[in-house]
Amino acid sequence: MKHAKKYPFTARRAKRLAFSLHNRSSVSVPRERDFLRWIFAVLNRIGGDAEIALMLCDEAQARAYNRDFRGKDYATNVLSFELETGDDRLPERLCGDLLMCPQVVAREAQEQGKDLAAHYAHLTVHGVLHLAGFDHIEDADAEEMEKLEIHVLNQLGYKNPYL
Q1: Sheet with strand 17-24: strands edge to edge
Q2: pLDDT at 2
Q3: Which of 18, 40, 85, 127 is geometrically suited to a Cys-Cys bond with 98, CB 3.0 to 4.6 A?
Q4: DSSP secondary structure letter of residue 130
Q5: Structure pTM?
Q6: Which residues touch 5 (CB under 8 Å, ≥6 apart)?
Q7: Is 17 helix (H, G, I), strand (E, B) or coil?
Q8: Nearest-angstrom CA–CA distance, 90 and 120
Q9: How far apart are the first and last CA of the chain?
Q10: Could you state, in chain order, the average pLDDT of each consecutive group of 10 residues for the chain (163 residues)?
Q11: What are the beta bridge partners of residue 15?
Q12: Residue 95 pairs with which residues in a beta bridge?
């Protein structure tokens, strides 16, 4: 209890976000507090609380998940799996899993001339927005999602990832 009194943000954060990070990747990745900062930026924009598990895995595992769940036989940068809580008492609670492949993220950042941390931030924001029900299938939905991403990333100090 002393910890919560000394650090009130920690207690508030624990009420708003249940987060777990599982690093199964063999490469260096951002710190947990970076992922938390990026997730909180989305929550602050869209409102609500969340339960999110983030798994960082190597390309073979990312490829298997992408193939099994999306029918696409390649490793992708981020996958989102929205979970239905079935609890009408928590309509504002966002629940889901994110899977990210650090090798793909690093390769894309290098190919696109992007800062690696900025790319991780973008993909984290993108994935959390998917958990919140946003998508980019239709042009109007894609435009709305991109505007949100740009706004959140700007608030975090990163430039527009779509330029």
Answers
A1: 17-24, 49-57, 93-100, 78-82
A2: 54
A3: 127
A4: H
A5: 0.89
A6: none
A7: strand
A8: 29
A9: 46
A10: 56 79 94 97 93 97 97 97 64 87 98 97 97 94 97 98 94
A11: none
A12: 51
